[in-house]
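QA checklist item 7 of 12: single-chain prediction sanity check.
[x] sequence parsed
[x] length recorded as 105
[x] structure emitted
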Amino acid sequence: MIQITVDIPEGSLASLHKDPASFAREVRSAAAVQLYAKRELSQERAAELAGLSRLAFVDALGRYGVSPFQVTAAELIEESMARGPSARSSTSDRRKMARRPPPWT
């Protein structure tokens, strides 16, 4: 593991009411979330950077207001259109599926 040292003014750390260890964890999480949001890191690698499990990282994304999904609706539509009509279900197929009871009932 690579170790990076960052100088933080004592006044800044004191005004946040955090000890150095909790501040370091928060900075790692914030950096990982930002890099994920910018699509520079995958969710797996960002979680690793943050020192969190994948599930805990998804929770962190929610706290920061970042979607865990990196694909936009427009990208999904474009991908669906590129696959052609055979990859998309018809309206009648969707209606049939909507009438089926969920498998867990």
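[x] summary fact logged: The two ends are 48 Å apart (CA to CA).
[ ] second reviewer sign-off
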